[in-house]
From TrEMBL:
Gene name of this polypeptide: Ggact
Cellular component GO terms held in the UniProt record: cytosol
Domain Gamma-glutamylcyclotransferase AIG2-like: 4-122
Name of the protein in question: Gamma-glutamylaminecyclotransferase
Protein origin, superkingdom: Eukaryota
Transmembrane segments: none
Keyword Membrane attached: no
Native organism: Eulacestoma nigropectus (wattled ploughbill)
Length: 156
């Protein structure tokens, strides 16, 4: 099992969360909530209002999201879904645990108790330069006050 941190449309209550609960695509078990240890710019960009975490450590905010434990099948699905490695790149990042529900190995429980876990995150280093000038968010909600509702793939 691998740990994945999601900060956008795959979170609970967001437009693509259904993929995280579709066992035909693999297993994803919610473990808790966290935020990036380093600051990153989280922007909403493009004509479909897609959330992107730009891989510029030290700029932006500590981005909030959810931690999942996923099997290999789900990880492969997420790579494909996220357009990895072209649109997003899957990298390891340090995530500060804010709230932990996960049950698992004692080493995992100890790591969570320490407060920091290494998780895979889909961020991007391949973005148009003007995205750096977009507003930065610390948390994503498709129906947030930014007014930039995400456009589902099936509606594009």
């Amino acid at each position: 099992m691998a740990r994945v941190f999601v900060y956008g449309t795959l979170k609970k209550g967001q437009p693509n969360y259904k993929h995280m609960t579709n066992t035909a695509k693999g297993l994803a078990k919610f473990q808790g909530r966290g935020r990036t240890v380093e600051k990153y710019p989280l922007v909403i960009a493009g004509k479909y209002n897609i959330p992107y975490m730009l891989n510029i450590p030290g700029t932006g905010h500590h981005v909030a999201g959810e931690i999942y434990s996923v099997d290999e099948q789900m990880l492969q699905f997420l790579d494909e879904f996220e357009g990895c490695p072209d649109m997003y790149q899957r990298t390891l990042m340090r995530i500060q645990v804010v709230e932990w529900e996960g049950k698992g190995s004692t080493s995992e429980a100890r790591a969570a108790a320490d407060g920091v876990l290494e998780c895979f995150v889909y961020s991007t280093a391949t973005y148009p330069p003007e995205w750096v000038g977009l507003p930065y968010y610390d948390s994503y909600d498709s129906s947030g006050k930014h007014g930039l509702s995400y456009v589902l793939r099936e509606s594009r």
